[in-house]
From TrEMBL:
PANTHER family from the UniProt entry: IRON-SULFUR-BINDING OXIDOREDUCTASE FADF-RELATED, IRON-SULFUR-BINDING OXIDOREDUCTASE FADF-RELATED-RELATED
Top-rank lineage group of the source organism: Archaea
Example of a GO cellular component annotation carried by this entry: plasma membrane
Source species: Candidatus Methanodesulfokora washburnensis
Keywords: 4Fe-4S, Iron, Iron-sulfur, Metal-binding, Oxidoreductase
Pfam families, per the entry: CCG, Fer4_8
Protein name, entry field: (Fe-S)-binding protein
């Protein structure tokens, strides 16, 4: 079922369970073994050695992963567990196994609607007046940013200040970069969707986006793309000092989390350190597609952890994460996106 290289990597696992300590699904379920990375590796091992049969439930289980790579840091053998799970999904699909229904539906929506959902107007967030002259730079919101309309607007305003030029907008015609298909194992479909997206936007010199996955996908296609948070200058000047304790849910890419932390500290916030497993970005949209309730429980657990550590505000970097955390009702902690903090506190 699996390639020799993938099986060799799985066979290196000693099943120590250290990886579980970096998994948000494991912690949010009160350390339920079946939701940790070790369980997913053991399922694949049992199926490949014919100790167990590949079932609908076991296939679905392999998609309950955020591809966040935090588990990799805990592995004593330096196995790329997150990357391995993507390879396993890809090889299962190539072998003819059908992914879970919700994943198949997501693929169809991306290919037909240019976003992962059955219906959504991707231009709904736009509240700005635009000039008619041609633009060199494109502000590419990304699918999840358009679902978080206040974050989309604050990110757009920051982009205008950072780029210091008019930005093009594709409004409702903005395509999907296809990244969810990549981590779902639909590699061929991902490449097709990405090339289709490229054909719609290659007239712009540069793409600016608040979504790290969109940035990386477009860069992979050969386009000049920039992650908005990367473009924010280091020598920020605070125009209004803030107070309070802020916990940060950064991207699972450490360098960008460090940048966001620096922004909060310059603004005057006391930054509360969260455990490693309290990280989230759009890789978790795959698990959200399988079980919204499970991912909401993860967000609730992180909010509870931040509150217990004394934070009165949770600052989010990633658009999917902001959408998810903002959907939690009855939370005891304020939810803000990093771009609204930039607009409130700094001269850009």
């Amino acid at each position: 079922m699996l390639s020799e290289g993938t099986w060799r990597e799985i066979s290196r696992c000693i099943s120590c369970g250290a990886c579980n300590e970096g998994c948000s699904l494991f912690h949010a379920s009160e350390r339920k073994e079946s939701l940790g990375p070790r369980s997913r590796i053991n399922i694949v091992r049992a199926i490949n050695t014919k100790v167990a049969q590949l079932s609908i439930n076991s296939i679905e289980h392999l998609y309950l992963c955020g591809s966040c790579t935090v588990c990799n840091k805990y592995c004593p053998l330096n196995i790329d567990i997150a990357g391995l799970m993507i390879r396993i999904r890809e090889e299962l699909i190539r072998a003819g196994y059908v992914p879970p229904y919700n994943i198949a539906r997501m693929r169809r929506n991306i290919e037909v609607n240019d976003h992962p959902w059955d219906s959504w107007d991707k231009g709904k967030w736009i509240q700005v007046r635009r000039s008619a002259r041609p633009k060199k730079h494109l502000f590419f919101a990304g699918c999840w940013t358009t679902r978080s309309q206040d974050m989309a607007n604050s990110a757009y305003m920051v982009a205008k200040k950072v780029v210091k030029d008019d930005l093009g907008l594709l409004e409702s015609a903005e395509p999907c970069c296809g990244y969810p298909l990549k981590i779902a194992g639909h590699v061929d479909a991902y490449k097709e969707v990405l090339m289709r997206a490229r054909s719609k936007i290659e007239g712009f010199e540069d793409i600016v986006t608040p979504c790290i996955s969109c940035k990386e996908s477009f860069k992979e296609s050969g386009l000049s793309s920039h992650y908005l948070l990367e473009m924010v200058p280091e020598d920020l000047e605070a125009i209004k000092r803030r107070s309070g304790k802020a916990a940060l849910i950064g991207s699972c890419r450490d360098s960008f989390t460090d940048k966001a932390r620096n922004i909060l500290e310059i603004a005057g916030y006391d930054v509360v350190d969260l455990p490693d497993w309290c990280c989230m970005d759009c890789g978790f949209s795959l698990a959200y597609t399988i079980s919204q309730d499970l991912m909401k429980s993860v967000a609730s657990k992180i909010m509870e952890t931040a509150s217990d550590l004394g934070a009165d505000m949770l600052v989010i970097v990633d658009p999917f994460s902001y959408y998810l955390f903002s959907s939690i009702e009855g939370g005891k902690i304020e939810i803000r996106d990093i771009y609204s903090i930039l607009l409130d506190s700094f001269r850009l």
